[in-house]
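Notes, p. 3: input format for complexes.
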Amino acid sequence: ADVFTYDPGFTSTAACESAITYIDGDKGELLYRGYPIDQLAEKSHYLEVCYLLLNGELPSRQQMEDFEYRITRHTMLHEQIQYFFRGFRRDAHPMATMVGVVGALSSFYHDSLDINDPWQREVASMRLIAKLPTIAAWAYKYSIGQPFVYPRNELSYAENFLHMCFSVPAEPYHVEPALAKAMDRIFTLHADHEQNASTSTVRLAGSSGANPFACIAAGIACLWGPAHGGANQACLEMLRQIGTVDRIPEFIARAKDKNDPFRLMGFGHRVYKNFDPRAKVMKESADEVLELLGIHNNPTLQVAKELERIALHDEYFVSKKLYPNVDFYSGIILEAMGFPTSMFTPIFALSRTVGWISQWKEMIGDPTGKIGRPRQLYTGATFRDYVDVDAR
Ligand code: CMC
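Output follows (392 residues plus carboxymethyl coenzyme *A):
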């Protein structure tokens, strides 16, 4: 009989070679193409990071201009896609709408489905990065009964997203530059994270030769789960449920109780056994945004900070090396910006799209690539003869 290595949850199996993102979980280090995340978050901007992830090097001024120009020219959606949105219930979760709409892109853009044609792969990549903010914003607009707002070419990627979410035809939303910067930083911090569940899903889907729109839809579906990208929504809801600082011990006790399924959302990570470097940047950003918006004594932020402080000194969390992850503080910023919790995971999805595409392109370009096909340890019945229904 065949002998297989059994590794549930892939805790010790490398499924691919990759030159895109490096994580040192013990040190709490995250590098995109060698550049540390904190430097990129401070000095770079999201579209430059997209270029870096996709191409391996930082762009020259000219390369950056060309890239931005191309992304900007793909932000519109085929007009017919509006009817697709309108087919959903208004109260649909925006992630449900996004999985559907992104999957449906392959029925609109026939000239970018051939994965063997480098030009088509390139166009599909540009389209996905450019259109995801439009799709996320429209999923939101639809859910609140407001008209869809078209993208505007003179705005930056982050400004444009805020505009499409918060402008109405009667009144354009004034995009505060500092808020656009914070939005851009959230995109940057989420851009890639090597072989996490959704990225592995995109690779697995892509390994069969499925088209890129279908693969990214699969990634979005996987990201939605509360153990993954859905944690940002779950975390803010948990912080609200805790409500006040005096109730924290009760929730800490629940998180430690083996008989209670409750976990501290935004805590713990498969790879990081130290501070998630993204959480550090996010925490500073949260302080800045609340300051900028003049929100003082925000109860959710107070609960978050105190929860973090208590957990970092608690024997259970210390011994299991459970630290705040990227999802712990992002929700506070997004809420302050005016997003409902249901938009947190869509924002993660649109930010991660470039990571998924970079990984998908790397895989497609690998001549040794094979279809992803895990084996199993079979535990079912052994051979037996069929029994006629009268004899059962
Ligand atoms: N609260 C309480 N206990 C926890 C937590 C938590 N948040 N996370 C892990 N543990 C415990 C867990 O019960 C287990 O204990 P024991 O060894 O006694 O059975 C131990 O720590 C190891 O946990 P695990 O589930 O085996 O670890 P994993 O690597 O499979 O899971 C995780 C990683 C992120 C799914 C998990 O830590 C978790 O569920 N965290 C909460 C959800 C969350 O914040 N997810 C976002 C992850 S980061 C960004 C993203 O992917 O979106």
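The beta strands are 21-24, 29-32, 35-36.
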